[in-house]
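Practice problem: predict the structure.
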Amino acid sequence: MKLKKEKKKRAGSSTSGLSKTESTVTNDGGQTDTKEMLALRQCKTAFDAIDANHNGFISVNAIQNVLKLMGSNISMKECRAFINEVDTDRSGDISFAEFEKLVELEGERLGIVDAATVKTLRGRHSSLTEMNWGGSNRNVDSVVEVQTSLRVPRVFSIDETEECFKVRLTITQEWPDLDSPAKSAGRDGPSWSPETEVFGVIGSPDVCSDTTYPRNDLYRGPVWRRVKVLVADISQRMAFKEFPFDISELLIILQLTHPVTNVVMKPFLDEKLPLVDMTACNMVLAEHSPHKPLPYSWEIGRSKCRGVKCSAVWITINLERKYQFYQHNVMWILWVITTCELGIWAIPFDDTADRIGSTLSIMFTAIAFKFIVEDKLPSVPYQTLMDQFMNMCFLFIFLAFGWHCFQTFIPDDIMESTEHHDSMALAAFSTTWAVMNLMQYLRASRIIAERHDEIMLQAESGGHLGKIQVFEKGQHIRITKKGSQTGKTGVVLKPTWGRGFVLIRKTEDSTLRTYMPHHLALDN
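Answer:
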């Protein structure tokens, strides 16, 4: 009875914000919840139950273990396929937002939540097409092409503790008016405008400006252009395995909220508005600088927005840490402290008490130094390169301490004959210390090189467009797209980073066209 009264009350209110098909329920606290809110709470409860580490992410193994306990026979390969379908940031784990998408897509098969919850989550997006067309239930026979340019003028800061970064974005979009000229005459704004969102934004972005105005395009005729400037905090998982020589990947995903069957992103034909523009990006950060071999890469393709395939652009900004501070003020100082252990052999062989006391002083100094610099090191549950170096230093000091303690058990009558062995021990420890440093250097170099190769490989292969070439401005290219006339050539008007469209000027008729990189080849 209470539910019916509440529904009637909200149906009669013009500002209730609920659709006619949405029902409400009153919870124990006397507050009114929609079915969607209840479904999201059930999803959150299921997510928290699987998230045993309580770090906000769940892995493939965690999901498979839960499914096994529930009696499911889903294999690890199938689980990974589910994860890859919703893992937009390609981290290998899924957040709650990605878990919500997983429930929408594979809810019945997984059985993590009940069928009513899956139905509710899907139902809120069943009318996505109509909602995204401004409520006009507009039906179109062709796909609307929205010319898009995403400019990143500044990356403000990176918060490694909260795992997020702050960025300023300028989104420029241009689209044709869907109404006839007679209907659009005298109207102040467009009958419809595309809606975009930045994936992973924490809270609501700060919109600095949002302007829409009409203009006449040389190729498309009357169009509407929208320029939106916003500042957003975007969540980003940080990896510190190579710290302090690590490279952070900041991922920006701009996606349409319309189905890709209705609306797609396309680049501007104007050279001044590239699809992705980071040429003047201000990335003056305290601890990071742009990765010199590949500052950024980008690709265009499709992503799933609330269970619907939508057009999207990915930008990956590669920032390498300024390691000089940690190298000079942490690693070098600790190396000097540890190397002083070799000076203990200058104390006479028979004075073992002084040797042990000096070794303990060096050990306590190293421990105190570690506590001093601990606040400047990342707090992660795995070992970084810095942790491995520190452990190597402590291991060497402990081995030297063990040798000096062993000397106390040598009888006095053979003490003189053991002095030769002590000199040999000094040579052995010196050689061991040199070898340990060399091995640590070679291992760190290998890990750093593998990380650099991984970044270059991600920019050149895989993803939505496959392996591509990087075209430089002014290069003469040959069009190899299936269906195009043979012999067509053109000139690249601007370089490409990673994957994306290539803007060329055709040699035959001087027209501007955009092609996928794998539809082009260098004209030798």
